[in-house]
Each structure stands twice: as C-alpha cells, then as structure tokens.
Amino acid sequence: MAENARLAKEEDIRNVFRTSYTWSEPGPLGLKLKDRISGMGLMVRSVTKEGLPDEIAGLCIECVNGVNVSEMDYDDNIAQIKGAGRPLTIEFRALGVEEAKEVDPIGNHGNTPRT
Q1: Cβ-proximal residues to 4 (8 Å cutoff; 6+ apart), any chain
Q2: Domain extents for the chain?
Q3: C-alpha triplet 43, 47, 48: angle, nearest 5°
Q4: Using CA atoms, how far apart are residues 111 and 34, in angstroms rounded to an integer?
Q5: Do 88 and 20 contact (CB within 8 A), yes or no?
Q6: Contact 38/110 with Cβ under 8 angstroms?
Q7: Which CATH superfamily is domain 2-100 in?
Q8: Which of 5, 26, 33, 112 is deepest in the core (most CB within 10 A)?
Q9: What is the pTM of this model?
Q10: Structure confidence by residue, pLDDT tens digits, 2-12
Q11: 19-54 confidence digits (pLDDT tens)
C-alpha cells in the first residue's frame, strides 16, 4: 500500500504542468504575485499585461533564470527577479495534488496580494 502511494506521488510530480516565459525588454513583468500559504514560493495571482500567456495565472514560480526560487520567501523571490535583469526567464509550474490543498475557495490563501 505504501509503495503504491509513493508511486502515485512520483507520477503526480512527473505530470505537473510546466511552462516558461522570457522577458527581453526592461519594465514591469505584468504579473500580480502573491505568497503561498506555506510562506515559501510565489504564485501568479493574475496576468495584467497584454501579450503574456493567460495560462500562467494560478501557477507557481519555480525558477528565475535557472535558479530554483520555490523554497524562497516573498522578499527573496522578488530580489531574485529584480536582480536578474534582462533577458529574464521565469519557469512556472502548476500546484501538485498535495500543494493544491493549500488553496482556499476565494484563492487568496489568507494573504494580502502584493504587486
């Protein structure tokens, strides 16, 4: 039974949706970001700039120019993004099954969104 649960979790990890986007020009990213309830990592609350893929809304930021930021707090994530310059490539991923349990019905995780 435990082996089946472990295999199911590994399968879930492999099947998580991932995508990336590269900003080449300076200026705002066009994303509204929020803390995850765990206090580690950021989620994209919404996309505010035309031309960005809508499907990144609701995804977690995983890497900034190849640096894994998924376990960094809000301030460290923002510092990594601001310090990266351009071109800036951000890798996004969907929440895994266990992580999705964090999300409350109104989607704010009890946190105040930051921009």
Answers
A1: none
A2: 2-100
A3: 135
A4: 7
A5: no
A6: no
A7: PDZ domain (2.30.42.10)
A8: 33
A9: 0.73
A10: 554 444 444 45
A11: 999 999 999 999 999 998 888 899 999 999 999 999
